[in-house]
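Readers of this paper often ask what the protein records in our data store actually look like. The remainder of this section carries one protein's record, kept here as part of the documentation.

:::
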Amino acid sequence: MIRALVFISVLLSSDLVQLKSPCSYQDVLDHLNLSKSNEVYKLSRPVLDHTRPTHIQLSVVLYSILAVIEKTQTFIPFVWAGMSWTNERIHWEPDQFCGITHFAVPRELLWEPDLFIYEMTEKDSSPKNPYLVVFHNGTVTSEEEIKVVATCKMDLHKFPFDTQQCNLTLGSAMHTADEVHLRPLLNSSRVTEFSRELLLTQGEWEFVSLSVDNYNFSFSGLMWETLVYTFTVKRRPLLHVLNLLVPILFFLVLDVASFFISDFRGEKLGFKVTVLLAVSVLLLILNEILPSTSSDTPLIATYCIVIFAMMLLSVLETILVTFLMDRNDSSLKMADSGNESGPTQHELLCVSEESNHSLKSSESQILVLILDQIRELRGSVSAHVTPGGDPHVHGCVWAKRINGVFVSLYVLTAALFLGLMFMQWVV
């Protein structure tokens, strides 16, 4: 009896082993008749009733910000794009195939939505995923990593303290809103959260947020449905501040400091011209960064041009002061041509003016008093020799007054302008 029971149990176990024979993905493919030669799965939109639309769920997540090129207004992100839809011709029972619920098939076997990015200007060069994932209920999923080179309308008014918003609009090329419905798989907050978690590199730009919206538009009497993903990125301004704003500010400070160089030294005008040329080089660098088609003048361009104009006026003022002194010098040399020994009246006047501003010691004060006495003596002699006095005697004094007034206005204007620019950039 025991031997009979053992024999029966062995037979039952062998039958169970035969029932639990292994299954393969090819069994499912044979069941579906899914092959390259069977074109029913890829020739048309996979619905059993043509009036029924295909619902496509789409999600885009940011991996990396590769570049934002202001000159060409190009936005280059690296994104992950996933979408899913239902193929109504695909269905199988997992229990009949050893619990197989899904498997991967080559892309060329199945129909795919003809979605494209409206703003894309170059063909994607990143490696393609050659497979789609098919589920037992007919759901088909696709995942791609895409390097997007897209055009983006940028507002550079507050450059380099600007925030840019660039759109990626995804829609079908051939199917209208009646045939294909696009829906976001994740809402804006979840997409932003996942992007921050998966973000690999940001570079000059800091990722702020990613939002998604549905947008429908009419064209040629037909309604088209799209999904618009808006990337908000903020520039990190440190590099441009150190390379442009701070050097120009330093040159402005040098230009103000150059007013304290003596007008009787020839290097003052040369120093100012050198500073002006240095600013012009920075303007050329700025021209290489900003696009020439900007609709609104960037604040940094106003900043550079106004400072350049102020330095230009400073050079012109120095030329005027030099001209007045040279004219005064020529006139006084003609008046003093008969006196070849001793200092001329021009030298006494201008040296006295320079000493009053630069020398503070007791010995210097004595020297200034002696020069003032000699100047008064020579002035009285000139008054007796030439009635009415020399009209060019006080040329040096006028030059000093013009210089003082200009320096005061220059510093005041620079301070007000810098404060105004700071408020414009911060607000």
Q: What stands out?
A: The two ends are 97 Å apart (CA to CA). The chain has two domains: 23-236, 240-426.
